[in-house]
């Protein structure tokens, strides 16, 4: 890695950056090193407005259930909205919303505050109280952000469920969270298509088990036909009509759960990652400011969906906590054509653009096969900083992004972080860090990232190992909702005597620079287009198709566009199919998984076998399946394999 080109921050950007030059970065790291709690306390006072100032900083008395600023009181929505209005930013544009069909609306801070208050009052009128859980199942919209802010305002804990998840997945999350209310929309618009939302909520409830749920609030987006259950369904516009545009914020303790967000783990059902209010808000605001060097005149655009953590921290909270102007986009990057992003950057004069490698890779492909959608036809001169998140960005995609989108002048911040970490953990700072394509470079100041071996011992640079964080940080996961034991086992395992946070990724540091490169998950979690998917989840969905499937194993294989692709090996309850029959069954199973989990979990490849490769003790040999999935010759030792002939069969196409 050290022999690869490094890109220095442009001098003009470095000169005026919030963190200007490597010495400034190192000073911050040294400050945290010298007085860890003092460092975070200083920033917490600078970035968060407290109703009641905290006197405690880090409380480790119940480790690994760490608490930050616990006796402080605040309101997150107050910090994002009222604070800006009070500072004279009421008329400033908070959100530039571009709809799927290209229609643009802007919302000022004043208006966003009024809409948040009306929705907060509406929720209160339905009896929603502090601590209640509210599921938000909406697509990208101003209302989605308002719903999150309104929950924060009244102290309700939101749990946003990505609009692409199925009724079954939604049901599981409503049940696990014990949600009292779901906020949804009649339908969503994506790529010119009207797709269902409310009917999926109906299906989720019909599956049973949502006993805690009292009401469903529906935002009218398309006006499409939907079924109505007068006893529980309420239109959002009817509820908010006539509600006062002010609402006293509910002051909560810093540890009050701001949100739950379900994410895939290596085993079992998705886990409800619980985040607190104070520490989370601090890191959201702090990282938005330093990592993106955000200034008052910037137009920030994070292309993530609010259904993922990136949309929480870098759409719903971070930019608003700084009084920034941000773009919120309803649609998809390929509609009406694959120049949509570039045209939007030009239209809205976006200066900081944050997206995922999978989007970049698919837009490179599109631009290479159709010149009309190439970014050079758009004026991208407003851009100053680019960002990447969700998965490793391969150097070729990095270089293209740098040259064709950034015009060779914009630093790319490759931000490594997770749902559990709340915000950036390892990332360049654009006015300080020399960049190496493919490396997320160095820890954010104050974050004690390290690489260790299986016993928790530090490994030297140049030698790969397990990525850990040695000290707790303010925006870290607090627990897994309803399952503290699983929290401990997943993140503070006994292997490291419960001392270190285990990220679940492997990493390596460069021998000379000490730069981090993430080498991928070390558990059974796949990363498909930046979305986390547990292989076990997909396997259990497949074997849940009891009419057809006897056994299934799921592995990932590298994919040029999506990073990893899902490959499923299936043993049917009928003889192994071939030709058209195999194709038809594969489609049926893909649709089944789409229905069980959501379209993002549909396996790209499905192979059929009379059996799976197993050891004599009956364990599925996944490492062999990974080779078969890649289409490479199996070179590993197969001596423990009970039925070697099966590998050839599983490798066959149909
Ligand atoms: C923010 C987010 C987390 C997992 C993480 C890692 C992968 C995220 C990355 C990256 C390499 C980066 N990941 N950012 N890998 N470089 N810059 O994506 O959260 O959905 O929880 O996924 O994504 O494997 O462990 P989440």
TrEMBL record:
One of its GO terms (molecular function) is AMP binding. ATP binds at residues 390-392, 414-419, 505, 521, 532. Its EC number is 6.2.1.1. Transmembrane segments: none annotated. It comes from the Bacteria. Keywords: Acetylation, ATP-binding, Ligase, Magnesium, Metal-binding, Nucleotide-binding. CoA binds at residues 190-193, 310, 529. Residues 537-619 form the AMP-binding enzyme C-terminal domain. The keyword Heme does not apply. The modification N6-acetyllysine is found at residue 619. Belongs to the ATP-dependent AMP-binding enzyme family. Catalyzes the conversion of acetate into acetyl-CoA (AcCoA), an essential intermediate at the junction of anabolic and catabolic pathways. AcsA undergoes a two-step reaction. In the first half reaction, AcsA combines acetate with ATP to form acetyl-adenylate (AcAMP) intermediate. In the second half reaction, it can then transfer the acetyl group from AcAMP to the sulfhydryl group of CoA, forming the product AcCoA. This is Acetyl-coenzyme A synthetase. The lineage of its organism: Bacteria, Pseudomonadati, Pseudomonadota, Betaproteobacteria, Burkholderiales. The gene is acsA.
